[in-house]
Amino acid sequence: MDTEEFARSRKKLGKTQKEMAELLGIALKTVHSYEQGWRTIPSHIERQVYFLVCNHRGKHKSAVPCWEKKHCGMEQQCPAWEFQSGHLCWFICGTCCDCTQGCSLEDKMEKCRSCDILKDQLE
Ligand code: SF4
Ligand code: SF4
Questions:
Q1: Distance CA 72, CA 63 (A)
Q2: Closest residue CA from atom 2 of ligand 2
Q3: Between 41 and 63, whose confidence is greater?
Q4: Which end of the chain has fewer surrounding CB within 10 Å, N or C?
Q5: Is 121 inside any structural domain?
Q6: Using a 6 Å cutoff on CB, does residue 115 contact ligand 2?
Q7: Taking a C-beta distance cutoff of 8 angstroms, is the pair 54, 66 a contact?
Q8: In angstroms, rounded to a whole number, what is the distance separating the alpha carbons of residues 121 and 40?
Q9: In a domain, 30, yes or no
Q10: What's the predicted TM-score (pTM) here?
């Protein structure tokens, strides 16, 4: 996640920098640093921001679960299914998609960022 996307997501949520800091459990000056580009936004913060955007005001209720959208056939073995989180598969490590199995959080976020399951929910 880059500087612009972080600021855009905060605005989409209708939050001030102070409110965003509270939601993320970080200092206000850290939010400033992210938006000014002085600090890299770590994967665990990126994941939290996506979680907030995807679930804002019940938005997730209209999301199609990943196993339906991708017709993956792996759902019975996948933690996304176990936790009934088909719209949050990008949030859960250890999912069974070919591209993300066994990945670190950083690598997983890199791949999920370009997947339609996440992208469609961020629009
Ligand atoms: S995360 Fe991937 S493997 Fe798991 S249920 Fe969703 S589409 Fe299937
Ligand atoms: S690549 Fe990521 S977002 Fe896409 S289906 Fe797999 S876990 Fe979900």
A1: 16
A2: 112
A3: 41
A4: C
A5: yes
A6: yes
A7: no
A8: 23
A9: no
A10: 0.91
Question: To the nearest whole number, what is the mean pLDDT of the chain?
Answer: 93
Count of domains for the chain? 1
Q: Return the residue matching tokens 């196993």.
A: 67
Q: How far is the CA of 67 from the centre of ligand 1 (A)?
A: 5
Residue pLDDT, tens place only, 22-53 = 999 999 999 999 999 999 999 999 999 999 99
| Ligand approaching nearest to the C-alpha of 69 | 1
Give the side-chain half-sphere CA count within 13 A for 19: 10
Instruction: Report the half-sphere exposure of 21 (CA within 13 A, side-chain side).
Output: 13
Residue 99 pLDDT: 64
Average pLDDT score over residue span 6-25:
98
Token digits for 80? 């996304």
Q: Find the domain containing 110 and state its range.
A: 60-123
In a domain, 119, yes or no: yes
The two structure tokens encoding residue 3: 């500087």
9 in contact with ligand 2, CB cutoff 6 A: no
Q: Is residue 28 part of a domain?
A: no
